[in-house]
Specification:
The protein has 222 residues and is an alpha/beta fold. It is built from nine helices and nine strands. Helix 6 (146-154) packs across helix 7 (164-173). 32% of the residues are buried.
Length: 222
């Protein structure tokens, strides 16, 4: 998270803390001042929530190709979260998201045996899962050594990466992903394109009025 994008992160954070009490959130960043976190946590103290300053150095990680201007190298950090955060469950959220309800039931969602991730299909690339919202089961992620698998794919020469870290995660974790309905990641921005192109499956999947999470995929951010 670059400091120039902090207004987007603040919008996402406000939506999380409004609906989910006694929650711990980690904000990955390189340059947000500690004073900002202190001020936020003073406001959160009465509801029992906390915002952690997760300082990172991108030089510590294997970073692959990035395909779109509005997506930067930070997107690859999600691959390393089980290394950075100690928790049985980790819910990763992009910073272009609006949360509309309590996230606790999502965190406690039962996964099928052997599944390490729960994700929603990408509304533009329906053959893949969208990495903007990922529920990670720590034990299974470590059991299948999925970080190592992701890194090995990143380091493959002449590999065609069409959608940054999302391509890597889909290649590495395909058999360990449990598919979720769009309720958990309602992707905003492609509904008009889907309508114009008569992509009925994608257009019919766009139901933000019923969604727990809005996810803004294009340059237009909340």
């Amino acid at each position: 998270m670059q400091i120039t994008a902090i207004d987007k992160a603040e919008t996402t954070l406000k939506s999380i803390f409004k609906h989910t009490l006694e929650v711990e959130v980690y904000l990955a960043n390189m340059d947000i001042p500690q004073e900002w976190f202190v001020a936020v946590n003073e406001k959160l103290a009465p509801v029992g929530s906390k915002l952690h300053d997760l300082k990172i150095d991108l030089n510590d990680f294997e970073i692959g190709q990035v395909n779109f201007e509005h997506i930067n190298d930070y997107s690859y950090v999600r691959i390393y979260l089980p290394r950075l955060i100690e928790a049985d469950r980790i819910l990763y959220l992009d910073s272009d998201i609006i949360v509309r309800g309590d996230l606790n039931p999502f965190l406690e969602l039962e996964l099928a045996k052997g599944k390490a991730l729960a994700m929603v299909k990408d509304i533009q690339f329906m053959g893949a899962y969208n990495s903007g919202v990922m529920l990670i089961d720590y034990d299974n992620w470590q059991r299948y050594k999925l970080e190592e698998v992701c890194i090995s794919i990143i380091n493959k020469k002449d590999l065609k990466i069409t959608n940054g870290d999302q391509t890597i995660i889909n290649m590495a974790c395909q058999e360990y992903i449990q598919e979720l309905p769009f309720y958990y990641n309602s992707q905003v921005g492609y509904n008009m394109l889907a309508s114009y192109n008569n992509w009925s499956e994608r257009f019919n999947s766009f139901t933000p009025q019923e969604a727990l999470i809005y996810h803004y995929l294009t340059f237009d951010k909340p």
